Amino acid sequence: MLLSRRQRWRRWRRSRPFWGGLLAILAGAWICVLPLAPLKVMLQQGVAGIPSVLMGIVMVVLGLTAWFSPSQRALAGVLTTLIATAALVLSNLGGFLIGTLLGILGGGLMFAWQPYTARRAAGTAPPADPGADPAAVPAASAADPAPPRAASPPPTPHSDPQGAQP
């Protein structure tokens, strides 16, 4: 039973940008927690602490978005990187530079992550169209030359609604 849980966790973790999301959540928590000092310090800080808390919350939400909606990973990665960079200026040097560095690294990992695809063995053909009849498709051999390419049509003149010629 323990092995199956471990395999399910590993499968879930590998099917999404886990490490990028984790770094974004940690960066958001770090940026968000620093201004939430004791009440006396928070009152002295005033309105300056609000952007820090908001940016931290948004970064945590973006990290969770990367985990639970991997199709939105590119947008979440770009926004995490931008918010982490903005936190450098707006929030105690981005959580004393730690939050900014974690956010930029996490955003980059989220943006760069690609879903796992099964690698084809060398020399195997790509899967055929499931609706096609395999008997109707002739098998191509390595000795057959490639069919000649059709010539591309000549470029058409540009049509400008105002009548200007290209």
Q: Care to count the β-strands? A: 0
- The percentage helix is 55-70%
Q: What would you call the structural class?
A: mainly alpha
Rg value: 26 Å
| Unreliable residue runs | none
Shape: flat
Distance separating the two termini: 71 Å
H/E topology pattern:
HHHHHHH
Write the SSE topology.
Layout: H1 2-14, H2 18-33, H3 39-45, H4 49-68, H5 73-90, H6 92-96, H7 98-112
Helix pairs in contact: 2-4, 2-5, 2-7, 4-5, 5-7
State the main characteristics.
7 helices; 166 residues; mainly alpha
Summarize the structure in short:
This protein has 166 residues and is an all-alpha fold.
Q: If you had to describe this structure to a student in words, what would you say it looks like?
A:
With 166 residues, the protein is an all-alpha fold. Helix content is 57%, strand content 0%. It contains 7 helices and no strands. It has helices at 2-14, 18-33, 39-45, 49-68, 73-90, 92-96, 98-112. The termini are far apart. 27% of the residues are buried. The model has no long low-confidence stretch (mean pLDDT 79).
